[in-house]
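Regression report. Comparing outputs from two consecutive submissions.

Submission 1:
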Amino acid sequence: MISLLISVLLAWTPFAQEGKDIPFDIRARQNLLMGKGGTSGSLYYDVVITRQPTQGILIKLPYTKKGGKFSFDLHHRIAMPEDFGLPAEVTTVIEVLSGGTTSLGVYTIADKIHAGDKFDETIIKASSAEIDKFITPMFRKTITMDIRPGPQSISIVGQMLMITRGATTTRVDTPGTRIAAVSNFKFAETSPGVSLTR
C-alpha cells in the first residue's frame, strides 16, 4: 500500500515542478520590431551585432525566489530577393548577455535553404520600407535557459552570420548589422516539487 502511494506521488512530481508563465517586460527599441506573426500573433524582433546590451533585445525579468526558465525562438534573418542564390547553408550565432556584458550563453542555428523554402508563418511587417520587402525569418530553434533567483535583465545580441553557396562563404560580423530574428518569448518561475518524507 505504501509503495503504491509513493508511486503515485512520484508520478505527480513532474507536474508539481512545472512553473506557471509570468509576465515580463520587453524593452527593445521600437526600430528593432520586425513585425507580428500572422498566425501566432507573436512579435518578431531583429537581433543586431553588438556588445552593448542596450542595443540588443533587452528583456526585464521579474523577481523570483527560485529562478525560472526563459525561452524564445531563434530564426535566421534573411533577405530573399530572386537572385539570393540557392541552395545556401546559413549559420547564425547570437549571445545572451546579463549584468552588463556577462555572457549567459552563445547559441547557434544552422540550416540549408533550398529553392521554394518558406517560413512557417506570414509576418505582418512593422516597416513598409522597400529595403525590408524581401526580409524574412527562416527556420525556428527554441532556446531554453535556466534563470537564477532574483530580478534580472538580459539582452539578446548578435555575433555573426555565415552564408555558404558552393565554395564561397560570406561572413557578416559588422556591428549594427541585423542578422537574426527572435520571437515567442516565455518565462516560467520554478515551482517547488513534492518532497517525500517518511
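Submission 2:
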Amino acid sequence: MRPEWGDLLEQYVRLGGTLVVESVPGWSTDRSGGYALSEWEAPVGNSAPGTIKFGELSGIKFNYYHRGAVTRIRILQDHPLTAGLEPLNEWIEIPYKEGDNNYGYLAYPVVADDATVLIEAEHEACRYDGISYKRRGNITGVHPLVTIKQLDKGTVIRQYAHVTFPTTMGGQERYETFAENLAEYVRKLYNEHTAR
C-alpha cells in the first residue's frame, strides 16, 4: 500500500465517509513511487506507515503478535451494529472442537485508544509450531474484536479477526446478523450525510 492512501482515506472519513476496515491494511509498504521511510518506520509490520495510519484512523494501537485464539466474546455496547447479538455484557462461548484448525480462530491483540469497543474477545495463547497453530491452554488477555470511531463527520468501523470473522463471532448466524446490521448502518450514515 502506498503511504499516501491512508491520508486520502482519512480525508474521505473526515468529510463524512464511512470506512470499514478488516485485517491489516497497510501492513506492507509500496515504495515503488520513491517513498522514503523515516527512521522510526519499517517497510512491513507494526511500524509500517500504513499500519500506523490505519491504527490511528481506527482509534487503536495495532499489534500483530501474539495473535490469540478467540475463546469467548462479549457484546459491550447497545448499538445498531450489535442489535440482535445479545446477550449484552455476558460472555458468549465460541464453539471449538478438539482437533479443529485453530487458524480461523485467531484475532489480533490490539489495544483501544480512542475507539469505542463494541465487541471484545478473550484470547487463548495459540502459537505456530511449524505445522499448525496450537492452543496452549492459558488466557493471554481480552482485546477488542470490533471497534467504531467517529472522526469529524465520518466513521471508521474495524474488526480484528485474522482470517475468519464468522468463526471468531461464534458462527455463521451471529456473523450474518452483524453483516446485515453493518449494511443497514452504513446505508443510514450515507443517507444522513447526503441529506446535509
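Expected: both submissions complete independently.
Actual: both completed, but the second showed a warning that disappeared on reload.
Relevant detail on submission 2: The mean pLDDT is 90.
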